[in-house]
């Protein structure tokens, strides 16, 4: 499934191999039906820069993206409330559905 649905938010996850906390974040996103891409942290130096800017030392980095692909939030660790808030803030509205049908 592609992540660039213009009406749906998504997450980019930068994770380490064999990371239980990373797996917890992925399980939560699966349970919520959220769209995400899991990427190896070691292969993405730009993610390390984002982690430094967000002042997170976590093994996983969560980058919450808007429906149009802009970075809305960056954080480390399992933060269910932040994930749910992002999904709610950028969920497609009735107006989006009506406009798509017009």
UniProtKB/TrEMBL annotation:
<dbReference type="InterPro" id="IPR002109">
    <property type="entry name" value="Glutaredoxin"/>
</dbReference>
<feature type="domain" description="Glutaredoxin">
    <location>
        <begin position="13"/>
        <end position="49"/>
    </location>
</feature>
<dbReference type="InterPro" id="IPR036249">
    <property type="entry name" value="Thioredoxin-like_sf"/>
</dbReference>
<dbReference type="Pfam" id="PF00462">
    <property type="entry name" value="Glutaredoxin"/>
</dbReference>
<protein>
    <recommendedName>
        <fullName>Glutaredoxin domain-containing protein</fullName>
    </recommendedName>
</protein>
């Amino acid at each position: 499934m592609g992540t660039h649905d213009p009406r749906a938010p998504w997450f980019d996850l930068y994770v380490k191999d064999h990371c239980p906390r990373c797996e917890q974040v992925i399980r939560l996103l699966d349970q919520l039906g959220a769209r995400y891409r899991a990427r190896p942290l070691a292969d993405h130096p730009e993610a390390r820069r984002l982690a430094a800017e967000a002042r997170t030392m976590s093994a996983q980095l969560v980058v919450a993206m808007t429906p149009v692909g802009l970075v809305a939030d960056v954080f480390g660790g399992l933060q269910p409330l932040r994930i749910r808030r992002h999904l709610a803030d950028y969920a497609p509205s009735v107006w989006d559905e009506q406009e798509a049908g017009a």
